[in-house]
Amino acid sequence: MAYKITHRTTGRELRFPNRAAAESYIERHGGGLGNWDITTAPGRDPAWGLPAAMLPGGAPKRRANRRTHG
């Protein structure tokens, strides 16, 4: 089941594929559970909306800028 967290002060919303991922994000990056509301999110469990560090395999690797001069 997908979960959504909403910051109590700023209103920022993030979606997670499960409650454990949402709570892990809050503890690591969000200042603690007291600053957020956790609710179930409608729809399928998304991979989008996750912070890059929470994605399988970690953050995507940046590509080198490969400009060609014609």
Automatic annotation (TrEMBL):
Domain of life: Bacteria
Compositionally biased residues, Basic residues: 60-70
Residue span of region Disordered: 51-70
Name of protein: Uncharacterized protein
Organism: Amycolatopsis cihanbeyliensis
